[in-house]
Amino acid sequence: MVETTDNSAVLALRPGDVVVLSRDGLDALISALREADYDVTGPTVRNAAIVLGPVSSTSDLPVGYRDEQSAGRYRVVKEDDERCFQWAVGPGSWKGEFFPSKQEQWRAVRSGETYTFVEPRFESPSLAIFGARPCEVAAIGVLDKVLSQGTYGDARYVSRRRDLFVVVAECGAPASTCFCTSMGTGPGASDGFDLSLSEISDAGGHRFVVRVGSERGGAILSTVARERASSEDLVARERLLEDAETTMSRRMPSGIAAVLAHSQESPRWSEIAERCLSCANCTLVCPTCFCSDVHDVTDLSGAVIRERTWSSCFDLEHSYLHGGSVRASGGSRYRQWMTHKLSTWWDQFDASGCVGCGRCIAWCPVGIDITEEAALFEQDAQLPEPEASAR
Amino acid sequence: MSSDLRLDVTESDGDGRGALTPILHRVVSRHQETADVTILALEPLSGPRLEVRPGQFNMLTAFGVGEVAISVSSAPRDPGPIQHSVRDVGQVTHALCRSRVGDLIGVRGPFGTDWRVSLDDVNSPILSGGDVVVMAGGIGLAPLRGAVHELVARAREGGGRVFVLIGAREPAQIVFNEDLAAWERDGARVLVSVDRGSPQWRGRVGLVTTLLADAGFDASSAAALICGPEIMMRFSARALVDMGVDPHRILVSLERNMQCGLGWCGHCQLGPFILCRDGPVVPYAGVVSHLLSERER
Amino acid sequence: MSESMADLVRSHPVAAGLGDDAVALLVGCAKNVAFNADELLISEGASADTFYLLRRGHVAIEVHSPERGALVIETVGPGAVVGWSWLVPPYRWTFDARALEPVGAIAIDGACLRTKALSDPAFGFAMLSKVSVELLERLQATRLRLLDLYGRTDVQ
After folding, report:
1. What is the pLDDT of residue B286?
2. What's the burial of B128, exposed, middle or buried (CB within 10 Å: 0-12/13-18/19+)?
3. Most CB atoms closer than 10 Å: which of A161, A350, B21, B32?
4. Of A38, A127, A134, which Cα lies nearest the Cα of A85?
């Protein structure tokens, strides 16, 4: 496990190897990725939030920032702290990198008696996502099942996603809204990455324990100045993850899929609907929500343009069926969202649609908490059936 | 990327066309079937005709208006072009119904599951030699038409007897009258009941399920295909089960908002199903019998 | 004659599960009848005395209007009980029942049956239960038709 060569890196690093980088080393890694022609995208502070954007050095990262999140609340706070990853997750998930919120599918141009279809070329930049949380990498895996592994794969999604270089940042700063431990997606990363960072700041100094997850991850890392990981470094990483797990107070009940499958007629849905604004914030910040609208627009030249845009099951139009919406009440739409996310997603994609990132809790303007609601449904399911009244 | 992530891509066809890009078809004939139903026959501008199994649907584009899911009502045995029966219920269907011979229409498909009546369907729950009951409500006969064609032809070749039970609002809204007569000539038992009679109507007036008692099929060996409004399908399926038909051998065709046909857009979810992928044709037994009784609103 | 009448009654769904005594009571009020196409079995407004257990052929339950002629509400076939108004006062038919084709039926004298039902409540209850099965089925079917399921739905 522990790297045995010196900094000249005669031997390339292999999957499973672990090294330690200083902040300068991390900068060198970013530079190495950029030199290898990757567009490096990562967390950065803009408009008082941690959002995704181009990263050319560690100074673009949210150095010294932490986030405060609770139901219906998100704030970033700047502190005197050298750490780059002392926050949980921002509002923007990575799904927009592979599944843009608006995509032109084709343009049909009238040419004489017929139409000519012009399809925009797939942009396939070599993308490196830098500092994604383990829950977010899990979310990309969930989206893969939806958009690339069905009967039909979305070629646009796949072209952006296929060669993705993933640098995961293991989570040492979960927010109060986080519940990845109960979803099995964090705070540590187990797979799905090329390189995994764990940021340590202790008596031993500020440093990053880096694990290699792939051949190409090893190859890039081999070009960067690094030190061998000591047993203290490995213990510090373990402690980071243990502390993160301990501070995570929210959890998703493990049997929620079965509970919700039998809660279709629960009065709780209308009760939630009294609070829910059907604003669709939860679906927009969710890293796995994939619904889209397919619609045509025309331009002044007479060309017909087919677009695909993000949509939400909270829209009344989402379930429109010649003449009306199948899910007309707010309660039925919340039920569709929550039941799909936690229960029928298993039927459809053999996975949970929720990874426990907690964004839907923080960004709900009225603070509806999916874990709290799930616990209530679970509690209802455990209560004995009410005595049958005379009918 | 690590090796456990699988990225399979199957495009809708091999020439690099995006899965959301339609194939241009021309309207080669149109027929006003009822006041609000128009039958469009479509030929591709180039390339072969689409091969569609009865029960599957296509996405039809009215250029500049939009795209809509329409079931295919021609049969694989039909020699002519592919046919869609379009009911004028919204913007896109209105534009499709108003299209003229020679107009261009975009076609993507076929999508979804079928009525399991194709010759190569070796495990079909429908083609076991017993009677086949086909129940259609209103325009619900359109996606069933190809299946009935197939079943009637099969019956003449020694397959199970065919019973076609049709419910319609009124005599003027009965679709495919010529087919009904032809199926009857070819040995099928065809019964029609309307919700409202007319002075000229000498046939049955009543709910489509009232035809079941007179049809004369052997319930214990029968299979059934049902398509119509959900309420009609639910009561029809229950009536068949009450008569002794095996619910695993009853297929129904479910409908939800469909925008991509590819399983991507999420609009056509119904419980565990993504209907463009897992449906529209699904067995009534089990989860569907419960779904049909659940309140979604 | 009465033995074959008993067989006829037994073969009708309304007699399914009835004991021999009950069938005998029913037979006592029954006779075998036939109608040609277009003949009225029942006339709206007339005294509701005889009702019919259909054996073959179809019957239209209808009401007539001067402008629109006969309006068919529903059609019923073999196995049906045609006529229920004999059960309840004022014992007057509400609709016409017209044969759509040659019809074979068992005619039951409703007044006779009412008398027997009053003196033998167990028989009365059994008969009422039998008729209720059809009443319920027809009411449910009518309710579903009220929904106009195949009509346009573009106005919510």
Report:
1. 86
2. middle
3. A161
4. A134
CB C69 within 8 A of CB B200: no
**Element of type H or E holding C132:** helix C121-146
Q: Is C145 a member of any domain?
A: no
Is A151–B277 a contact, with Cβ atoms under 8 angstroms apart? yes
Among A247, A270, A285, which residue terminates a domain?
A: A247
Q: Which residue range is the domain that position A117 belongs to?
A: 18-247
Token couple for B54: 């009865």
- Mean pLDDT calculated for residue range A72-79: 96
Q: How far apart are CA A160 and CA B174, in angstroms?
A: 50
For residue C101, being part of any structural domain is answered with yes
Inside any domain, residue C60:
yes
Pair (A226, A124) in one structural domain: yes
Number of domains chain A is built from = 2
Annotate A143-206 with DSSP letters as a single string: HHHHHTSSSS--HHHHHHHTT-EEEEE--S---TT--HHHHT--SS--SS-SEEEEEEEETTEE
Measured over the CA atoms of residue A215, residue A201, residue A94 and residue A315, the dihedral's sign is positive
Residue A172, strand partner residues = none
My answer on whether A48 and A139 are in the same domain is: yes
CB contact under 8 A, C144 and B231: yes
Which residue, among C147, C148, C150, C156, would best test binding to A if mutated, counting the most A CBs under 10 Å from its CB?
C156
Residues A354-363 have pLDDT tens digits of: 999 999 999 9
Q: Residue C37 domain-assigned?
A: yes
B18 and A166: CB-CB below 8 Å? no
Q: What's the predicted TM-score (pTM) here?
A: 0.90
Residue-level pLDDT at B16: 58
Residues of B in contact with A294 (CB under 8 A): 20, 67, 259-260, 265
CB-CB neighbors (< 8 A) of B295 in chain A:
264-265, 332
Please give the helix or strand (H or E) that residue B178 lies within, else none. helix B177-185
Q: What are phi and psi of B40, to 5 degrees?
A: -110, 130
- The answer to whether C139 contacts chain B (CB < 8 Å) is no
Q: Indicate whether A240 and A282 sit together in one domain.
A: no
Residue C63 forms contact with B (CB below 8 Å): no
